[in-house]
Amino acid sequence: MKILILxxxxxxxxxxxxxxxxxxxxxxxxxxxxxLQTLQNRFDLRTLVGNASHPSVLKEAGIADAxxxxxxxxxxxVNMVACKLAASLFNTPTRIARIRxxxxxxxxxxxxxxxxxxxxxxxxxxxxxxxxxxxxEFPEVLQVLEFNEGKVSLVAVRAFEGGPLVGQELKYLRQHxxxxxxxxxxxxxxxxxxxxxxxxVIEDGDEIFFIAATENIRSVLKELxxxxxxxxxxxxxxxxNIGRRLALSLExxxxxxxxxxxxxxxxxxxxxxxxxxxxxxxxxxxxxLESEHVGEVDIFCALxxxxxxxxxxxxxxxxxxxxxxxxxxxxSAYVGLVQGGKIDIALSPAHVTIGSLLAYVRQxxxxxxxxxxxxxxxxxxxxxHGDRQSSQVVGRRIDEIDLPKGxxxxxxxxxxxxxxxxxxxxxxxxxxxxxxxxNKQMIRKIEKLFQVNVGFL
Length: 457
Prior knowledge:
Layout: E1 2-6, H1 10-20, E2 25-30, H2 33-42, E3 46-49, H3 55-60, E4 68-71, H4 76-88, E5 94-98, H5 102-105, E6 120-122, H6 124-137, E7 141-147, E8 152-158, H7 171-176, E9 182-189, E10 192-194, E11 207-213, H8 217-224, E12 233-237, H9 241-250, E13 255-260, H10 263-272, E14 277-280, H11 286-291, E15 299-302, H12 307-320, E16 324-328, H13 332-338, E17 345-347, H14 349-361, E18 366-372, E19 377-383, E20 407-414, E21 417-420, E22 432-437, H15 443-449
Parallel strand pairs: 1-2, 1-4, 2-3, 4-5, 5-6, 12-13, 12-15, 13-14, 15-16, 16-17
Antiparallel strand pairs: 7-8, 8-11, 9-10, 9-11, 18-19, 19-22, 20-21, 20-22
């Protein structure tokens, strides 16, 4: 697939990294020559310095025969204009725009073909806000991701000594909870993947990915570890796009304190927020944190644009006694270094939001994609089409399907019903199939499995 990416920031760079490894023809456009040079030094792709909303620049970048335009610059206006030009001048088949402004997102009609011709709009800040809220709702988990409009969830949790299932074989889960639909999709032990089987014994410290009907998440969590008390008190450092959105989302359900360094921004936030307490100060000021009783906080979220501030404030909060700390880390290289130590969860904005873009790029009918373990693994929701003659999956039991080693069918959603993916489960046409992949090199093969023969179409 030939893809034109506008913007070489965190989102654009991460998208380029993911797509170029999958044999796509990628061109990246940005005004910043240094950013483009860094990309070109690392990956096999084309770059072009220029204004992403200028027709001549788009033409030089090869939009005339591009299959897809991903407009992910920092400017909503540039992204929308680029999509309009791509449609009206170059007839580009698929146009995706990053939109940050809530005002634009509230008026979806401006993205129609009569206006800016945006096929799909994504808001990374809102995706990240929703993601963090889920982590606050389930303070025991490392990751919680939804499929099929929230009917199914994929949850990552670290097993701790004392959990009923630790030291037991996996088949014990099904015997112990016969009424609960759940399936362990993968286990990572000391960062190495283990393909789960009935005889696999869960050990203390294992990172376990399980799939369950969303309503059953808490029941399964109780089997894997001691349950934390529900969170009540949340402290947020950083009142930018993400911090503001999160405070607005939480203030009616939690006791929220928000610390923002910029005084003018504090005044604006205080006007927007009705229940959250807004404080003007430095999130790395130990005295301020102590005076605001950070040690009694259930969830501490460091969400500024400065990685160092986020890391330092999180470490101070943890030292003071905050139960769980979440730190936003823009530099992907830092994420693996800090997570799992004093910082409970380190979030890379690009890795959290990449799935929303990958769902449009994947071949076949892909309803959702989630990036896992900092981009190393992936979970996909694919829709099965055809019949036994035209499809390699429809009409077949899971143990008959030629899945690559390391890929697991975790669940099937059929007309709203969640069915766990056991060896004898048969896939039917129009089923939504949740597939967990421990190695992204397998993605192409899985996509081909779910594509129907040309004759069927």
